[in-house]
Amino acid sequence: ESAATTPPSIDGNVLVAKSLARLGVTHMFGVVGIPVTSLASRAMALGIRFVAFHNEQSAGYAASAYGYLTGRPGILLTVSGPGCVHGLAGLSNAWANTWPMVMISGSCDQRDAGRGDFQELDQVDAVKAFSKLSEKAKDVREIPNCVAKVLDRAVAGRPGGCYLDLPSDVLRQKISESEAENLVAEVEKSRKHEPIQASLKSEIESAVSLLRKAERPLIVFGKGAAYSRAEDELKKLVELTGIPFLPTPMGKGLLPDTHELSATAARSLAIGKCDVALVVGARLNWLLHFGESPKWSKEVKFILVDISEEEIELRKPHLGIAGDAKTVIGLLNREIKDDPFCLGKTDPWVESISKKAKENGEKMEAQLAKDVVPFNFLTPMRIIRDAILAVEGPSPVVVSEGANTMDVGRSVLVQKEPRTRLDAGTWGTMGVGLGYCIAAAVASPDRLVVAVEGDSGFGFSAMEVEVSDTLLNPILWNCLLSCFKLLSLMMQTLVRYNLAVVVIVFNNGGVYGGDRRSPEEISGPHKDDPAPTSFVPNAGYHKLIEAFGGKGYVVETPDELKSALAESFAARKPAVVNVIVDPFAGAESGRLQHKN
Ligand code: ADP
């Protein structure tokens, strides 16, 4: 049948769904509404799992984390105008963390643009700061090509977010089934493959020679190495050379935290004294103190392995190797094997690091061993660590946010497998927790997901209803009711899809915990209002999930926590464990006091 003889029966929504399915998309996250509702239903009918959220921000966070966990762009679907703006939270998070993601937004009718159309916004302009590539389909026939372009660009080179704009008139426009099929088949055929990696022979030789000559070498790896799935190569490199290693927070697990060459517990010594640092898939940004003294030695020589040439130019390392982490580390291993060298356990540098790590580890264990009630951060964290370690089968994915909760959790919780830790990341974004949980549960259905959250971090995307009764007035109450409806429906997403997610809330009654104002800060006409950091003490966060048929626990003692974790981990059903923590146990701004 020719295109001309079949009646036009495929509209833009169907064609987008068809293009996504045929180009390999299996999951989407989003919020439906005008003009993209049928796009989501059509995608589902074609076998794509559509996870429907109530807030584009969380759906966007989910899409970005899905991109990181799977190596395929996470897809966020939003409506126009406000939907797109809410989705920017996710798109910017993908940009900041260099994770592949595609935001697809409906937009207003092209004819009515500029005249105040329903939910009108120049979305291509609005996403500019966070999008590697933005495409607008101006005609239905452009859809398959636009879809392929954004999907491919999101993963090409340094991963990141891309944007696809779909005007509502284009989504309604129809073509024949045969024409649609031809357009999609054409794009499938012409899809470009990854460019061949340039020869890196001389860089590889120089890197190996630097490592060989170093007295105090260190291997640092980050979430770029995790994204690249470089775990086997890194393990081999560490085994071959005996060089101590230091993961960044999300690099944790590429090699097990329990490995004898892990320098995590001797971090200050390792970075302060190393003379050559091989940094793989991790930026020398604030998280690594910009690679500068006094945290790092002035003399340290950096060997930077990064997929992004731009990153290497920015940092001006002693030696830069632009390439995929897995490939580059594989090449280093091959080069080393020809003429092996290995530090050995009695090497003074290795010895000093393991001694320090052991000492610090013992100090920490002594603190952790105490059962402190009312709970501080350490006691419940130890119980959570042990419960996670006791899970049989694939390691759970740990999602963590909140100032103190994330800080303490980073040093206490043990990561044994790659890509099993998701936290506030490069931007220190709070509010990512629930979106990340949902993404992890969907991306790795065989793993339990355990979120270890501060009450403040949790509240961003779960609930903000905890205000004191004295503050209630009718306007506020209405506003609260709608907040409650919206945010608690987020919790419902866990229940609705019956995901194996246990959210543990460290409930210390506020941002950083309780009211920490100095006397000078308590004055003026509103001095009797709660502090900006305060929430209702002992808020019943667990009750939110009970409202939707999930399981809630509130715990105040080690035994109660142990039993809640044993039961909820075994059930593999959505649950919230509300852990009541002493409001004065944490520190203001966690470990970043100097930045507040
Ligand atoms: P961390 O937060 O763990 O320190 P960053 O997000 O700062 O990690 O750095 C990740 C780096 O990894 C980015 O500079 C990014 O360009 C890089 N990267 C992404 N994918 C790859 C890859 N496949 N191979 C090597 N580097 C990669």
Automatic annotation (TrEMBL):
Alphabetical list of InterPro entries matching this protein: DHS-like_NAD/FAD-binding_dom (IPR029035), HACL1-like (IPR045025), THDP-binding (IPR029061), Thiamin_PyroP_enz_cen_dom (IPR012000), Thiamin_PyroP_enz_TPP-bd_dom (IPR012001), TPP-bd_CS (IPR000399), TPP_enzyme_TPP-bd (IPR011766)
Presence of keyword Metal-binding: yes
GO MF term list:
2-hydroxyacyl-CoA lyase activity; magnesium ion binding; thiamine pyrophosphate binding
GO CC entries: peroxisome
Q: Which residues form the Thiamine pyrophosphate enzyme central domain?
A: 204-329
Q: What CDD domains does the annotation carry?
A: TPP_BZL_OCoD_HPCL, TPP_PYR_POX_like
Gene3D superfamilies documented for this protein: 3.40.50.970, TPP-binding domain
Give the required cofactors: thiamine diphosphate
This protein's UniProt keywords: Lyase, Magnesium, Metal-binding, Thiamine pyrophosphate
Cite the EC number.
Answer: 4.1.2.63
The lineage's top-level taxon is Eukaryota
Q: Extract one GO BP annotation from the record.
A: fatty acid alpha-oxidation
SUPFAM superfamilies, from UniProt? Answer: DHS-like NAD/FAD-binding domain (SSF52467), Thiamin diphosphate-binding fold (THDP-binding) (SSF52518)
Which chemical reaction does it catalyze? a 2-hydroxy-3-methyl fatty acyl-CoA = a 2-methyl-branched fatty aldehyde + formyl-CoA; an (R)-2-hydroxy-long-chain-fatty acyl-CoA = a long-chain fatty aldehyde + formyl-CoA
**What family classification does the UniProt entry report for this protein?**
Belongs to the TPP enzyme family.
The family database entries (PANTHER family) matched by this protein are listed as: 2-HYDROXYACYL-COA LYASE, 2-HYDROXYACYL-COA LYASE 1
Q: Under what name is this protein listed? A: 2-hydroxyacyl-CoA lyase
